[in-house]
Q: What sequence folds into this?
């Protein structure tokens, strides 16, 4: 199996990592963060060292992304490159060092969310593959799949309002934010389904109870860890 999706980071020594990279993907309010936390607690209880990560958590540019998005005027290429920079900084300074130290790294979203968002906004798939060619191939990727109607309900339950970007309002899909949200999240689901086939995601029904989803995650991760012993 290839270590990177593309050219990778050529200055790194080609050495195996003792750690594991596990990704949990899905839309906002799909339950990713809850499932990541529960999985982290279970792994640590069983004696594993775990590090959490996710998109827009870089000390270098995460604050810049928030500041820029507040204006609702970011161009699609600028947005793509900002998020790619955020991911690259975390990969080099957090993810890879943790894997080298034997940690299990749990990524609450990875490059796939960025690819989905960028594709919907008109980015060329070939350009995206080249852009994220430095990304490590995860040992396992999960996708929590939910229909837009349930995501809409969860957004209001959690926040009480809809987010401009998560509703795809920058795409002019509709002047009505509710309609725009539904259309945008439907498009996201379709793109995730395509990536799931291409990148071998383990797709999980996100409408299941929290403990049922967690049971599936733990079962799959346990198999991965046993196989690597």
A:
């Amino acid at each position: 199996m290839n270590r990177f999706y593309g050219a990778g980071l050529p200055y790194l020594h080609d050495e195996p990592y003792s750690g594991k990279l596990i990704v949990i993907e899905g839309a906002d309010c799909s339950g990713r963060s809850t499932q990541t936390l529960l999985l982290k607690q279970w792994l640590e209880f069983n004696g594993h060292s775990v590090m959490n990560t996710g998109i827009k958590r870089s000390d270098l540019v995460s604050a810049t992304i928030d500041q820029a998005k507040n204006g609702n005027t970011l161009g699609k290429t600028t947005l793509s490159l900002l998020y790619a920079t955020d991911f690259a900084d975390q990969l080099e300074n957090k993810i890879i060092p943790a894997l080298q130290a034997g940690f299990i790294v749990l990524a609450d979203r990875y490059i796939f969310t960025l690819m989905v968002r960028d594709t919907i906004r008109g980015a060329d798939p070939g350009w995206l593959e080249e852009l994220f060619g430095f990304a490590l191939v995860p040992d396992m990727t999960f996708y929590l799949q939910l229909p837009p109607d349930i995501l809409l309900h969860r957004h209001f339950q959690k926040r009480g309002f809809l987010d401009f970007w998560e509703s795809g309002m920058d795409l002019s899909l509709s002047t009505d934010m509710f309609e725009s949200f539904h259309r945008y999240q439907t498009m996201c689901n379709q793109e995730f389904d395509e990536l799931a086939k291409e990148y071998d995601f383990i797709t999980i029904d996100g409408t299941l109870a929290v403990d049922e989803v967690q049971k599936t995650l733990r079962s799959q991760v346990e198999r991965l860890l046993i196989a690597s012993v």
Observations:
- The beta strands are 20-26, 50-54, 104-108, 140-145, 202-205.
- The domain at 20-227 is CATH 3.40.50.300 (Rossmann fold).
- The chain has eight helices and five strands.
